[in-house]
Specification:
Layout lengths: L1 H10 L5 H26 L5 H20 L6 H6 L3 H14 L29 H31 L12 E2 L5 E2 L2 H12 L1 H14 L2 H20 L4 H28 L6 H26 L4 H19 L15 H7 L14 E2 L5 E2 L11
Antiparallel strand pairs: 1-2, 3-4
Helix pairs in contact: 1-2, 1-10, 1-11, 2-3, 2-7, 2-8, 2-10, 6-10, 6-11, 6-12, 8-9, 8-10, 9-10, 9-12
Length: about 375
């Protein structure tokens, strides 16, 4: 995910960056729907899990083949001083789109930098990196937890869900089995992520990154509080559906905002480190939900409330709004501009020098729509 999100950012114009992430995430949801559909056909077969594994291997093989035809990011080449290769990629992009590449002068010196794993938590990135880490952990805990929470709610009749699902049964080995009705329920919930992705794309571009972070996590806090008070199974299903949609919005926020915060030479590394908290949250949410649900599902829901509330408060301290700002390639750009807050001019894709070695601006290749 971190590599793919950064890759999309580095090939997209500012105005299309969010839409690229939305489409990327929609393909992921379609993958989830594909898995659900496969399960409908193979779940009753003997050793159906083997068929499931084989069917889900097909998209991975297609991806592996497709990656052989993908170019390296020109921003990656720029950040590592490989300017001729960067120019070659831009020329390919222009040719594929039937455009002329604007003239540009390649730099003669490479800015030295360290790509330490700890740099992501150093100034000027410290505050935002900590906040993104909290967002990643909280989102993953709640998303994975809810995914495991739903079948447990069916099994343990939380909030009267057994009145809606009466077909779940246990086989002779003690394994809980689900019928096609319940698989269609999962399919519907997976599809609910899609409107959340579109809502996220609209929100981060219209309201901004910080407002989106605030309203999503305050909304999640409220939804989980209602989930704590069981009223009727229809209310429970509605709350879970709204939570899924809101979590989809947070997904767009994460993968739009995170790559925008760091210069090219450390963008992927930084997002990989921050995504570690995502994986820790996913593991923790799954483990806690599965082991605590048999004893107290309300305790599980309480963890979602606490984490969402902590994250909502943390988002109040976001001090960088990256809406409308172009991606930075070097540390000196970050140092010069400081915290983003005002949309920056779209003028510098490749750092360039004139004949006297002074930095100059070049026509923006993104604005020429060569990509």
């Amino acid at each position: 995910y971190p590599v793919a999100a950064c890759y999309i950012h580095e090939f997209s114009v500012v105005t299309h960056r969010t839409s690229g992430i939305v489409m990327f995430q929609i393909v992921g949801v379609l993958g989830g729907i594909y898995v659900c559909v496969c399960s409908l056909f193979v779940m009753e077969l003997e050793e159906g899990w083997r068929w499931e594994l084989a069917l889900t291997l097909l998209p991975a093989l297609l991806t592996l083949i497709a990656l052989h035809f993908a170019d390296e990011s020109p921003r990656y080449y720029v950040a590592n001083g490989q300017y001729e290769k960067a120019l070659g990629v831009l020329q390919n992009m222009a040719r594929w789109n039937g455009r002329e590449l604007p003239e540009m002068t390649l730099p003669t010196e490479v800015e030295s930098h360290s790509n330490s794993y700890f740099e992501v938590y150093k100034q000027p990135y410290t505050r935002m990196s900590v906040i993104i880490s909290i967002i990643q952990f909280s989102w993953a805990w709640c998303y994975t937890g809810i995914t495991y929470f739903i079948p447990d709610a069916m099994s343990y009749s939380y909030c009267y869900l057994s009145d809606f699902f009466t077909s779940t049964y246990t086989d002779q080995h003690g394994c809980t089995l689900y019928t096609k009705t319940e698989y269609f329920f999962y399919l519907a919930f997976t599809a609910l992520y899609i409107p959340g992705l579109f809502l996220g794309g609209f929100s981060v571009e219209y309201f901004g990154r910080k407002p989106t972070a605030l309203w999503t996590f305050w909304t999640l806090t409220g939804l989980y509080m209602v989930l704590l008070v069981c009223i009727h199974y229809s209310i429970t299903i509605a709350i879970l559906a709204l939570a899924y949609i809101t979590l989809g919005t947070v997904t767009i926020l994460i993968w739009v905002l995170s790559p925008e915060l760091y210069p090219s030479y450390m963008r992927t590394t930084s997002n990989g480190i921050l995504n570690t908290f995502n994986r820790l949250g996913a593991a923790g949410g799954a483990f806690f939900t599965e082991y605590v649900d048999p004893y107290s599902m309300r305790l599980t829901v309480s963890t979602y409330i606490v984490l969402s509330l902590i994250t909502a408060i943390a988002c109040l301290f976001i001090n960088r709004e990256t809406k409308g700002s172009y991606l930075k390639d070097t540390r000196s750009e970050v140092s010069s501009y400081g915290a983003a807050g005002i949309p920056l001019s779209e003028t510098n894709v490749l750092p360039t020098t004139d004949n006297n070695g002074q930095g100059v601006e070049v026509p923006n290749v993104e604005e020429s729509k060569t990509n």
